[in-house]
Structure formats: C-alpha cells, structure tokens
Write a structure and sequence with these properties.
This protein is mainly alpha-helical. It has helices spanning 3-7, 14-27, 34-44, 53-58, 60-69, 80-88. Helix 2 packs antiparallel against helix 5. The longest helix is centred in the N-terminal third of the chain and has 14 residues, at 14-27.
Length: 89
C-alpha cells in the first residue's frame, strides 16, 4: 500500500498510482526466491525508491516510470493524466 495510508495523511488518486507502480515493478522483475521479492519490495519504500540495477539496464523506460510512481510524498508523483502522457510517448 502507499505510504500515505500508513502515515494517515491526505489520500488521493496518487495512492493508486503508487500501487500501480509496485505492480509494474513486479511485472518487470524476476525473483529466484520469496526472500528476494521481500527485499526488493522493501527497497522500493526507500526515498528515493531503489530498483535493482539490472532492471534499469533491461527496462530503462519502465524503471524511470516506476521511480516516478513510487515517489514520496505523494505530491511528487505524477497524476493520472501525466502518467498517461508519459506512457503514450
């Protein structure tokens, strides 16, 4: 879940974009073990989010999009319209 749910701060549609960023991250990832997955997901919560180096090499556009979607606080994340424009490029 988005950090703002845990922190009980203002929640808007950008919380959903955070969750979408996590889903995109998992779609672009390949984990050998469950522990690798847990560690990678916990590193996403850091500010700025840490992605595996091989992801940026293999999927540079998606990695940048994921970084933007996981920004903290939520006000630094793109809105849905900006996200759509980024994807359409």
């Amino acid at each position: 879940i988005a950090p703002e749910y845990i922190q009980s701060t203002d929640i808007d549609g950008r919380a959903d974009l955070y969750s979408l960023g996590v889903i995109l991250f998992e779609m672009c990832s390949c984990f050998s073990t469950g522990m690798e997955r847990v560690q990678a997901l916990s590193e996403l919560r850091e500010d700025p989010p840490r992605l595996p180096p091989q992801m940026a090499e293999r999927y540079p556009a998606q990695a940048e999009l994921i970084r933007q979607m996981l920004q903290q606080p939520a006000s630094r994340r793109p809105g849905a319209r900006a996200l759509l424009e980024c994807v359409e490029r």
